[in-house]
Specification:
With 481 residues, this protein is an alpha+beta fold. The chain has 13 helices and 17 strands. It is globular and about 75 Å long. The protein starts with 5 loop residues before the first helix and ends with a strand.
Length: 481
């Protein structure tokens, strides 16, 4: 069984309401019976409900990485507030009596073990060794899909050319309505990245504020769309001629062209790390209007690789109530298998089975040791990403700093050699972090590490960073919420 802390239970809850309701059950002493098995792998008990009979709830840690929640309540929320309350009772130090495992749970465990054995046997029979694990491509279906995608990219290419030749100053409400209609049509061509990019262009052009700044941002969007059509067409044409060509794994091109990576594919392409340990350094949930979804985004450091990884949980606006909202996580995640999606500097990751532990001083020391010490090298690395039109324009890196200094109305990060990095609020999710720097003490402002997000200002031709969090010898100070 993992160490059950309040933070661990919070991470399992589907939303803030479930956290509050689970905690309230413990405060109201709603658990007349709390039990655990001799080996500590099962917590179970009874919770007072609205009916005559109490609800019987349990949390089974037979597989520690994937606990099983069971409850007799009719709630559609998972985990329900009763199983969360059971865990909060343990985290808050309530007394659990030793008891034998209930017969019904023992039977369910046995059935689950048999199902798992059958899955493993089937997987072994289907896959054999790694060399035989290659997925078969439905060539006919792939060629048909590529034809539709190429048609959509051709449509987009003509539109981008028209907008560029006419000039952004000539774009009026009627033009934007036409572009928006074209974006809708791209939804039928399996190129969601292009569709979202075109919607971002429309949203940018409709934004209030300095028109020169708006035009600069809009032109960036058009350049990215032009690069996507050019590289996308070349890539798809090659795959249409030879469907057996391996997929692109050095960038997010496949994803932008509509491919949803399966875990089996990532394993086939060797994009899996075993026994990875990650610590979340920052978290932000924001609305992506262009894609019509909320993006719960976490930035993590891989303690083994030293890379900054990203998790992204997407919740479409139309289904937001039915989906669990991710939140800040304060523990250390140990993933049996870490799946790394194709990407550039900050590749997206995912894991299925994992365990958690509380961070220790050694973890903070390791994170600081992984921070980049030289700003000229960091700037070079960030620029190499930013100049790629298909890459993320806001790469995130962990940097060491000797000091954070205030210079008039601005702040600077300085490395051990005194080289500066200007600090600015880039507008990440509309959340400023610079004002919080004045609230920090000397401990946080000297000889620590900072997670920073880069942005190149085309108008000023200046590279600046927004500080997302600061890592000290004993904690992570999160400035971004």
């Amino acid at each position: 069984m993992p160490t059950i802390t309040e933070a661990y239970v919070d991470s399992l809850a589907p939303n803030a309401g479930a956290i509050k309701n689970g905690r309230d059950l413990v405060k109201k002493n709603s658990f007349p019976q709390l039990n655990e098995t001799e080996d500590g792998s099962l917590l179970f008990g009874e919770c007072k409900g609205s009916g005559k009979e109490p609800y019987r709830c349990s949390v089974d840690f037979a597989n520690e990485a994937n606990p099983v929640f069971r409850c007799t309540c009719p709630s559609r929320q998972f985990p329900c507030k009763h199983t969360l309350g059971l865990l909060y009772a343990r985290a808050l130090g309530k007394s659990f009596e030793r008891a034998d495992i209930p017969q019904d749970i023992a039977e369910k465990r046995d059935k689950a073990e048999k199902r798992e054995e059958k899955k493993k046997e089937a997987a072994a029979a289907d896959n054999g060794d790694a060399a035989k694990a290659k997925r078969k491509t439905n060539k006919s279906a792939l060629v048909k899909k590529i034809a539709v995608q190429l048609d959509g990219l051709g449509m987009l290419e003509k539109l981008v050319l028209q907008l560029t030749q006419a000039g952004l100053g000539s774009v009026d409400k009627k033009t934007l309505q036409m572009v928006e209609e074209q974006a809708k049509q791209l939804g039928n061509h399996y190129i969601p990245g292009a569709q979202a990019g075109l919607r971002e262009f429309v949203l940018t052009m409709r934004a209030e504020g300095d028109r020169e700044a708006v035009y600069t941002s809009a032109m960036e969007k058009l350049l990215a769309l032009r690069a996507l059509t050019k590289k996308g067409k070349s890539y798809l044409e090659q795959r249409a001629e030879n469907p057996d060509l391996p997929m692109e794994t050095d960038s997010t091109l496949e994803e932008q062209l509509g491919h949803a990576w399966q875990l089996a594919e990532l394993r086939e392409y060797g994009r899996v790390q075993t026994d990875a340990e990650l610590v979340q350094l920052a978290f932000l949930s924001y609305a992506d209007e262009a894609r019509g979804e909320f993006a719960d985004t976490g930035w993590w450091i891989d303690l083994k690789e030293g890379a900054i990884r990203v998790t992204r949980h997407l919740r479409p606006f139309r289904a937001v109530r039915a989906l669990r909202e991710e939140d800040t996580f304060h523990g250390v995640v140990k993933a049996e298998e870490l799946f790394v999606y194709p990407g550039d500097l900050n590749a997206r990751v995912r894991w299925e089975a994992s365990t958690f532990r509380d961070p220790e001083p050694a973890d903070y020391a390791k994170i600081k040791a992984l921070a980049a010490p030289s700003y000229p090298e960091v700037v070079k690395q960030a620029k190499n990403v930013i100049k790629n039109p298909l890459a993320d324009k806001n790469p995130v890196l962990l940097v060491a700093f000797r000091s954070i200094e205030r210079m008039g109305d601005e702040y600077l990060l300085r490395d051990a050699q005194g080289k500066p990095l200007p600090v600015a609020d880039i507008g990440l999710g509309g959340r400023p972090t610079t004002p919080m720097l004045s609230l920090l003490g000397d401990e946080e402002l000297r000889d620590q590490a900072a997670l920073v997000l880069f942005r190149h200002d085309l108008e000023a031709n200046r590279l600046s960073v927004q500080i997302m969090s600061i890592v000290t010898d004993r904690r992570i100070v999160r400035l971004l919420y």
